[in-house]
Design goal:
5-stranded parallel sheet, 5-stranded mixed sheet, 10 strands, alpha/beta, single chain
Length: about 290
């Protein structure tokens, strides 16, 4: 804590502000000195699970049992935001932390931040661990194509999940996926038709039994199923850029197929998302097809 105060204490930490603090995704040693200092000076700590965050702070030598604690999770985020806003209006420094990683990125926090901002109150980021950035840093995939797409967790309903996977199959850029242990085998099988497209799997990132492997989508299911522990833990995956470039007339071909089954606007929207062809050009083409 002395190091945290020395490194981070000189910065101004305004009152009446919400501090969105990233916490370790597995390895407690990844907590930042600035995060420790912000936890130490907070007037209120809001978090996804109060017991989990209290345990983290105790492991770091911080005891904040004498201040207010608020539970803010996916089931009460909107209603709990009112309590946070009331504290902020009273001039409190409020820290928000999810159980692991950066709040608001496939974790609670986004709705809380939105409602705080709508009230004209300050939100301060305290960055740190993120499974998304961690897996991208060891995949070597982003340099092969500009940018990346963060997909996160796929829908749990089968129909919506299948539709999302179809879009991913046509996505030329790098894609980051997150997956839970009880669904990793199903995801691996669903990605198998992508064949030689490469995927980097990060399992239990930063933890004692961390695994990182890069292989083809066609090999992924066998890799997961080959050892029992490979279907356990939390997963972050990087789907490498699609090496197959979209042909110039691919947008039109996909549009024609979709128009046979869907309304014009829906067909145009999906064709554009699948092929990356400009939506306005596809819409004009759809009108010509309908007229002809």
């Amino acid at each position: 804590m002395a190091a945290a105060r020395e490194a981070a204490g000189a910065q101004h930490y305004p009152k009446g502000a919400l501090y969105v603090v990233a916490t370790p995704i597995g390895n407690v040693a990844d907590i930042s000195l600035r995060a420790l200092h912000v936890f130490a000076i907070a007037d209120v700590i809001a978090c996804e699970d109060t017991r989990h965050t209290q345990s983290l702070l105790r492991a770091c030598g911080i005891d904040r049992t004498g201040i207010a604690w608020l539970a803010v999770h996916q089931h009460n985020e909107s209603s709990a935001a009112e309590a946070v806003i009331a504290r902020l209006r009273d001039g409190a420094r409020v820290v928000y932390a999810s159980d692991a990683g950066t709040p608001g990125v496939s974790d609670p926090g986004a709705r809380l931040v939105k409602e705080v901002q709508q009230q004209g109150l300050a939100v301060v980021p305290v960055p740190g661990a993120s499974s998304v950035i961690a897996v991208l840093s060891v995949a070597g995939a982003v340099g092969d194509a500009p940018g990346f797409v963060f997909q996160g967790f796929l829908p749990t309903k089968q129909g919506e999940r299948d539709s999302a996977l179809q879009l991913l199959a046509a996505e030329p850029r790098t894609v980051v996926l997150l997956e839970a242990p009880h669904r990793i085998e199903a995801l691996a099988r669903a990605l198998a038709p992508l064949g030689e497209r490469r995927v980097t799997v990060g399992r239990e990132l930063t933890k004692q039994f961390e695994q990182v492997a890069t292989l083809t989508c066609g090999e992924l299911a066998a890799w997961v199923e080959s050892e029992p522990q490979r279907s356990k833990g939390e997963f972050a995956l990087v789907l490498h850029p699609n090496p197959a470039a979209t042909a110039p007339d691919e947008g039109l071909r996909v549009l024609q197929l979709l128009l046979a089954e869907l309304p014009t606007r829906t067909a145009v929207k999906l064709a554009s998302e699948i092929t990356k062809a400009p939506r306005n050009e596809l819409y004009e083409a759809a009108l010509r097809i309908k007229q002809g």
